[in-house]
Structures are given as C-alpha cells and as structure tokens.
Amino acid sequence: MQALFRPDRRSHSPDSAASTPDRRGRLEMRAVSPYPCPDVMTAGDTDQMQPFTFNTTKSLVFRPGAAAEMAEVAGATLGPRILFVTDPGLTKLGLYDAALASLRGAGTTVTVFDTVEADPSRKTLEAAVAAGRAAEVTGIVGFGGGSSMDVAKVAALLLGSGEDLDDAWGVGQAKGPRLPLVLVPTTAGTGSEVTPVSILTVGEEEKRGVSSPVILPDIAILDANLTLGLPGPITAATGVDAMVHAIEAYASANANNNPLSRMLAREALRLLGANIRTVVTTPGDVEARGAMLLGSMLAGQAFANSPVAAVHALAYPIGGTFHIPHGLSNALVLPHVLRFNAPDAHTLYAEIAADAFPELASVEGDQARCAAFIEALEGLAVELGMPTRLRDVDIPETALEKMASDAMLQTRLLVNNPRPVEERDALAIYRAAW
Ligand code: NAD
What we know:
- The protein is α/β, with parallel strands linked by helices.
- It is 50% helix and 10% strand.
- It has 16 helices and nine strands.
- A six-stranded parallel β-sheet has the order 1-9-6-4-2-3, sandwiched between helices. It has a three-stranded mixed β-sheet with strand order 5-8-7, sandwiched between helices.
- α8 runs parallel beside α10 and α11 packs antiparallel against α12 (326-356).
- The site of nicotinamide-adenine-dinucleotide has 31 residues, from α3, α6, β7, α8 and α12.
C-alpha cells in the first residue's frame, strides 16, 4: 500500500510539502490511486500528508416516508414555533401537507412562508426573516429544491445571530449562531442539505453566495417519496447538476480537495450515472429516485469540501440574466468547459469516466477516455431531452461578451478550476456552447 503514494519529489521542497499542498504532486498520487487510504498516511509520512478540513451535516435521515413523520424525526430539534420555508409549486402539489400535519399534530405552531422563487432574491430572504421574526420562531425548516433550502439557511443565520447579510457574504464571514435548522430536499439535486453554501440573487441578476459551516443544518431528511412527482425536465436538469458537482469536486484545484471528497464524488457519479435515465423514463421508480437523492447528497458533500469551479462560474450569468434553471445552465456549458480543461485535467476526467459510464472502462489511454467521457455527457443530455445549445434557450449571440465579463466576477469559483480561465477563454467557451 505504501508504494501507492508517490508524490512528485521534484515539487516537494522542504517548505512546500505539507503546508502548501502541491497540485502536481497530488495529481501524480491520484493517477496511481484515486482512493488514497487514510490508514497508510501515517504520522511518519509528513511530506505525503495533505492537510484538509471536512464538514458536513451532522445528522442525515434517509428513508422514504420520513418527511411525513417530521415531528418524531426533527420536532425536538426545532422547538415549539417553526418557520416552514418552501415554494408555491409545492403548496399547490400538497407535497408538505403530511409534514405539517405531523408537526401540528405534535402541538407545534408552524408559520408557512411559501413565496420562494427559483434563484431566490435577497428580497425574498428578507421577507422570510421578517415572517420568522414576527412569529418569534424557534426553528426553521427548508423544504424544497435548492432555492427553498438556501433561503432557509440564511434566514436561520440572520434570525439566530442578528448578523447583517452584507457582513455574511463570501467564504467564512458568517459567524452565527443560527436557529435550529432542518432541510428536506425535494429535488436531486443541489445537495444544499449538506453544503455550507447559500446562493441568492442580488439586484437584477448577480448571484452571490454565503459560505460558512455555520449554515450547515442540524438534520437533513432525504425522503425519496417526495421526488416521485418531480417533472421530467426538472429531474433531468437537477440530476445533471448533481453530476457536475461530483465532476468539479473531483477535479477541483482548491487546496482543500481531499480524499473523502474524491471518494464521495466517485460514488455519487456511479449512483447518478446508473439511475438518471430511469428517473426520467420511469418517474415512479422509488429505488432509482432514492439512488438519485443519495447521489446528489454525496456529490453535495464532495463539493462542499472541494469546491466547484468554471462550469458553475460560467453557468451563473446564464441563470442570473436569462433565468434558465440552474441545472440546465450548468449542463449547457459542461462539455465545453471540460474540453477547455482537458489539457490540464484529462487524467482526472479519465479516472472518473467509467464511474458515470461503465462502458468507458474499455477505452484505452487517458486522453481518449477523457474525450469519450465528454462525448458521453453530451449524449446523455440529448438522451434526457435537454436543450444542448445556448441558442436553444433563446440566448442571443450578442449577449455572449457581457456573459463572459460577468463570469469573470465569479473569482470564488474560478480559482478552483484545474486550468486558469481568462475572459477570452470564457468567451470562446460560450461561443462553442452557442
Ligand atoms: P428550485 O428549488 O429552484 O425548484 C425548481 C422548481 O422545481 C420549482 O418550481 C419547484 O416548485 C419545483 N419542484 C421542486 N421539487 C419538486 C417536486 N418534488 N415535485 C414537483 N416540483 C418540484 O430548483 P433546484 O434546482 O433544486 O435549486 C436551484 C437553486 O439552488 C438555485 O438558486 C441554485 O443557485 C441553488 N444551488 C444551491 C447550492 C447550494 O449548495 N446551496 C448548490 C447548487 C445550486
């Protein structure tokens, strides 16, 4: 086992090793073993130790039907007065009726805030906080896709700590404490139930993030029954979103890219790749829905600790300006960003190709397997019936330059890309995607 760890000695000067993880050294190790086992990283291997921090949601409940028993699962955590944050589509579907009945049946006072929109705005967050303050709530539930969960996370923060949102933007700025928080994803998905991130739309079109372990929830309830009625296009887009999380986490250039995230990303891709077609063609298959929910959660844990990069940076201007759903925005630029990254990342993409598409195991050579992986992702989008070009979603060619300059504002994400991206590169990627 020891022999599996072969850091690039050329790059390990005495002061560069453990304190400044070296990407070239790490890549070489991973080319040999994508699953470095912590047990062989003994204290004696100091120059092979890559420091990292891994945070996740402390309690995960994965069970069909668990949401209908919310009082038993989460009542004690949430306290007597709850703000239930969700969206109007789910109200219409009655998707959370059983959860409310469970809470109210146990004597809990529940205030429902159900006006969260896709790509939720700061204004919506402020309205949720006002509703929570008026009801003097003791806990928050975020029930829905990433939009509802993200609003619930920051509402819990602002209500619990009295912090100002403008002091909380960015990485590690939110201090807490927050109110008790329970998240219930109904898409599979963003993985927001296990990420320290909340994405809000500020002004007309800027997507901005709060990223701090403080907003990880106390409990995430993963109930596959809730996703059985998710329409095909949302199922496909959110499923590809989860695959993007796993791919970008695995290849992230962030110094905190770590063996746990890489292992989780691979298992996520295995589950998502094996089930994404089934959930679109057979929406009522609860096992496949459960596998997708699990896969999106694992991908969320992976990228929560090994952050995403240029696919997301280039997707944000598409979502922010043209209100294209987040997963679809990612899918539209995915193959073009991976092709751009391939000169620096083909080994990494080759490592994970067969996780998502087992038939690619027989493709010899990293470059060929990487190319086949990108083609397979393009083919998957077609198979799932997704639009594949920016023009298909009515983005005019004249918008591409502004989108490229907007994408460059996502420095928080671009620094994680395995290949540096300049504005001219972003424009070329958008042109290829158009
Ligand atoms: P969403 O929450 O915006 O919901 C999209 C639509 O799906 C809504 O109309 C909703 O009513 C409907 N829907 C949700 N669940 C349903 C169900 N079970 N049955 C029927 N309809 C259902 O979609 P999303 O893709 O989950 O979230 C996107 C948001 O999440 C974006 O704002 C994005 O920026 C954010 N995001 C956050 C993170 C994070 O880590 N916090 C990660 C990725 C994306």
